[in-house]
Specification:
The protein is built from six helices and no strands. By secondary structure, the protein is an all-alpha fold. Helix 1 packs antiparallel against helix 2, helix 2 crosses helix 6 and helix 3 runs parallel beside helix 6. The protein is globular, with a radius of gyration of 23 Å.
Length: 265
């Protein structure tokens, strides 16, 4: 078998992806709280691009929309109809639409940088941004619940009506953990792990392609066709995953807000 597969441990051999790629060195303001590394630069760049694109798409809005305005309106309409109003109704959907819109667009844009040549890293591939977005969702659903049911939100969340009092010794800790701890944690980790896995797969496929084509040489170069094909397929798949994860994250945020607004509170 060793005669058929190039060694991954030889000098100049194949080296797979590593988690070290998610912790690049800083290049600006190094050693300060404002240190900027490659991932932070990607996040700043994406933020600027989002602002510029929306400014260009909405600066001269007309009754008959042009291409840029049409794209913006389609995107905003999808979020408004299929997430906000579908789950929260027209009134509450309108209230929380700016939050849900910003969340969806930010996650999609940050996810897509993982397949952009020259960037090759999702802005959501490190825990900071997923955690911040999960914290925003956490604050949003608690705010919604407290504002709608100021006297009973926490009480009914931790002590569901209709449960015999002795059972609360078991139910209350479970409700506390599932509602106030697991919700933000699972939101952040689901997004983070999907982006890490996607990056690892892409790096593995394309680094293997480079190895077989330029380093191994000979008949081994034929393997590069297969690894490149897998890399291309995973790239297309990452586009789907990037949108899906943004949709799931935003949808679950809307679900948590809807549960906080429910009348039983």
């Amino acid at each position: 078998m060793n005669l058929l597969v190039p060694s991954a441990t030889d000098d100049g051999g194949f080296h797979g992806p590593s988690l070290d790629e998610f912790f690049p060195p800083g290049f600006l303001f190094v050693g300060t709280p404002f240190e900027i590394n490659r991932i932070m630069a990607i996040r700043i760049l994406v933020t600027i691009v989002i602002l510029v694109l929306f400014w260009l798409g909405t600066r001269k809005m007309t009754v008959v929309p042009r291409r840029g305005q049409s794209i913006v309106e389609m995107l905003l309409g999808f979020i408004r109809v299929n997430i906000a109003e579908d789950l929260l109704g027209k009134k509450d959907g309108t209230r929380f639409l700016p939050l849900l819109t910003a969340m969806f667009i930010t996650i999609v844009a940050m996810n897509f940088t993982g397949i952009v040549p020259g960037l090759n890293m999702a802005g959501t591939g490190v825990i900071g941004l997923p955690f911040l977005l999960a914290l925003v969702a956490y604050v949003a659903f608690i705010y919604a619940g407290v504002k709608k049911h100021p006297a009973s939100f926490f009480k009914n969340s931790l002590f569901p009506p209709g449960v015999p009092w002795p059972i609360y010794a078991v139910v209350t800790p479970i409700e506390f953990i599932s509602t106030f701890i697991l919700r933000p944690v699972t939101l952040a980790l689901r997004l983070l792990m999907n982006m890490i896995a996607g990056h690892m797969l892409l790096v593995l496929c394309f680094s293997a392609t480079s190895f077989f084509l330029f380093t191994a040489g000979g008949w081994y170069s034929l393997f590069s066709v297969g690894t490149f094909a897998f890399g291309f397929a995973f790239t297309i798949f990452e586009l789907f995953v990037g949108v899906l994860q943004a949709y799931v994250f935003t949808l679950l945020t809307a679900v948590y807000i809807q549960l906080a607004l429910a009348e039983e509170h």
